[in-house]
## 1
Amino acid sequence: MIIWLASYPRSGNTFLRMLLFHGYGIPTSSVHQDARLQKLGAADTIGHQPLPGSIAELARSPELYFVKTHDLPSDNYPALYVVRDGRDALVSYARYQLTFQGGKSRLRTRVKDFFGGDSFRGVLQSLIVGSPFGTWSQHVLAWTRRENSVTFLIRYEDLVQAPERWVAQALAALPVQPVAPTGFQSPDFAALHARWPEFFRKGQVGAWREEMPEDLQKLFWTHHGEAMRALSYT
């Protein structure tokens, strides 16, 4: 059986995976393989393990598999969905693109074509209007409005404030109960940043205030105001 750990990129999915691993001893996998975690040497800290089979095979198995995805929903498997203020998520995603994707990124190629460069502002502007995973609004609304499926919504801002409480509530909402806590330990973000500063950049709530230009804030609300209000972000 599959439990999706779903989110738009840079919304706290990795943080949730670490909480599951260090608090409950639950390893997790990813449909994206996450080879970068292996390259950085962070896989063991996160509790990442390679997918042991195809999604179809894991779905038919009586065992329970927690699998990360940034894709739009295409089935009715149960899910824990992490949502983060879209402004923070997009700022973080733009920084991630500039740090890791280099010249191979289709997004950065598109940015160069449309905006004449690959600056932070250009990447951020491009992400506001779309990404390979859909727009931020399309993603969060598609996952949170699924019908005939268990989808437990976790706000990143709540998760960092009370991780033990929200992970326990999320697991209790699943149709199949996993193991009991092994001794809950919340990751130390400062230590993670010190060791892998490019991957664990800030993790702060409201960092967009310092990094998103005012005109791009207006553009963001034009595209994502409905979803922000639906999720009680102001």
## 2
Amino acid sequence: MRFDTGGIYHIYNRGNNKQTIFFTDKNYLFFLEKVKKFILPNCDMLAWCLMPNHFHFLIRANEISCQLIPGRPVDTSRLVESVRLTLSGYTKAINIQEKLIGNLFQQKTKSKLVGDSENNYSLTAFHYIHQNPVKAGLADRLEDWQYSSYSDYAGLRDGKLCDKDLAVDLLQLNLSTFSSDSYAVLSDEMLDKIF
């Protein structure tokens, strides 16, 4: 993964062989604690969603994100390292809990630049991330899935992971029409731009 300051990125990964990565409610919360500890200090979080076998983040890379960690044989940015620490720490705990061995996640976490000065698909990624549980049949309504940032933006919860003011500014969100805008149909052509 490579990040440039100011770029908006869709970051995602799933369970190795599409296996489950979150087995209990406590697992989701434990993963979010890892995100707070490692990822949040190294980027601006705009949206997130955790699904039983994968996750999505929409982030803006900042100066800290792109700083290289000194003394590494391969150039590694702070954000790349923070994602690695989150996934490896979570994997160790789940492997103990579930009596598993080996990789929990696919080897390479993906990141796609979805917003910069030339192209801006970040709003599509934002809505896609929140729509994911409904499209997967895990919830009837976006607000029914507790493991996403949708409820924070809809004013149903006071979550602290996302920089909502920054997201409103960067994505030009209208909070008064947010709920109805969130249910807009996203075309396959639009979705191709965020993966």
## 3
Amino acid sequence: MQSTHVSADALTAKCELAAEILQSFGSLRFAATGWSMLPAVRSGDTLVIDRVTPSQIQVGDIALVGRGGRLCAHRVVRLPRGLGDKGWTTQGDAMPTPDQPVIENELLGRVTKIIRAGEYITVPPNLKGIDFLLVQIVRRSVFVARVFVYLTSRWNAEKVESLCQG
């Protein structure tokens, strides 16, 4: 029986490979997991990441960060302030608190598109309307987050099935 545990070395290699691909080719795609970016990003979405310079990152962008051997795509909520401040602050849309500040060498790129059920979706820089309301609710209730995940996974499965039949 094989273990499903992924070693720290394997996770670090994954981050290094992502950084290398972005540096060499300027773009990277990978499948999102988890629910920290609901409703903008759902588990199973394919994220299209482009290499950017730190000065190109703006509040509202979803930045790809490599930290502690893991990749994380969270929204930028604060830019560095002044010369002494080298960190960007990110936060998952569905998370109640911000992440630890991101330093320049951890910043890998910016999510420019989301591919969901074969459709390309432009990343919204600011959440508005129903998406903003959903974020506020999901941040406060794990139960609502789970219901949202369940309903969207059912809807996506039905959509993919109808695309395959049509």
